[in-house]
Amino acid sequence: MRGHSILIASWALAVSIILNGRQLCSGCFLEEKHALLDFKASLDVTTNAHLILSSWTGKEGDGANDDCCTWERVRCSNITGRIVELHLSDLRENMSEYWYVNINISTFIPLKDLRALDLSYNLFQGEVTGCRNWAKLQNLKSLYLGHNFFHNNIIPCITAITELKRLSLVDLDLEGSFPIEDFKRLEKLEFLDLSYNQLSGSLSFKGCRNWAKLQNLKSLYLDWNKFNNSIIPCITAITELKRLSLSYLDLEGSFPIEGIFTCYL
Ligand SMILES: *[C@@H]1O[C@H](CO)[C@@H](O)[C@H](O)[C@H]1NC(C)=O
Ligand SMILES: *[C@@H]1O[C@H](CO)[C@@H](O)[C@H](O)[C@H]1NC(C)=O
Ligand SMILES: *[C@@H]1O[C@H](CO)[C@@H](O)[C@H](O)[C@H]1NC(C)=O
Ligand SMILES: *[C@@H]1O[C@H](CO)[C@@H](O)[C@H](O)[C@H]1NC(C)=O
């Protein structure tokens, strides 16, 4: 009899765990679905609205469409049922003008297992808010933000995501000296693409030593920036580097530029 009630108790516990998290009928977590719908609403689309994320509908009892894991550009974990990847690049559907959108990072916070977020090629203009909450996306390993107009204000936001392994900041209108002081926190970074910005390198010796903290960095793309030769000693401080791209910079001297290869050969 005692064994029986323990069995019932553990059954009840299991059921309540399931009900607390996953919504049994709809197939995806309700709070995650709402987060996606909030993001879609924030896009505030007027032209081609029926084409942009058209499978993202909120109607209850809408058959397959109600399960946000089946929505376009969304990938869920087979194990947890949570969203792990969001591929939201190039959403514009022939919109030729820049797209004025205020991205609210807080919108993504319910996606606790999010590992990859791609917002690239949207030509988003506007503010990025809720930035401090980015630190809560502690499972985020890949972040692709390229080809938007986020400017330098995006940098303090990104450097809060300390688990990042892959980061693309291509063509974001970043300018001035590269804030390595902030980036040194991203010790797990393996891939960093900073190309097509106006970054320069007034890199002090101290700044250079900070590059050495990026000890997992294997690929570094710096093309089409304003870095000059003063960046070279800094690059040589990154000991694990396997891929390095330096085209269209303000480098001078004959190739191979002294210093770059001596460290690896
Ligand atoms: C889930 O399983 C399918 C089919 O086995 C597989 O193609 C897909 O990659 C898996 N998804 C994830 C996120 O692992
Ligand atoms: C987008 O542009 C392409 C090429 O001009 C065209 O074939 C397609 O129909 C357009 N799509 C929409 C939704 O307007
Ligand atoms: C951002 O989203 C959060 C959560 O949905 C909300 O509380 C906050 O007011 C939003 N901030 C802005 C500036 O819209
Ligand atoms: C390199 O760039 C930095 C900052 O942009 C500047 O201070 C420095 O004079 C430049 N060095 C050379 C050799 O041009």
TrEMBL record:
Annotated signal sequence range: 1-27
Leucine-rich repeat-containing N-terminal plant-type domain mapped to chain residues: 31-77
Main location per the UniProt record: membrane
Q: How does it sit in the membrane?
A: Single-pass type I membrane protein
Q: Which Gene3D superfamilies match?
A: Ribonuclease Inhibitor (3.80.10.10)
Q: Which UniProt keywords apply?
A: Glycoprotein, Leucine-rich repeat, Membrane, Repeat, Signal, Transmembrane, Transmembrane helix
Locations listed in the record? Membrane
Q: Spell out the protein name for this chain.
A: Receptor like protein 21-like
Its gene? LOC140017018
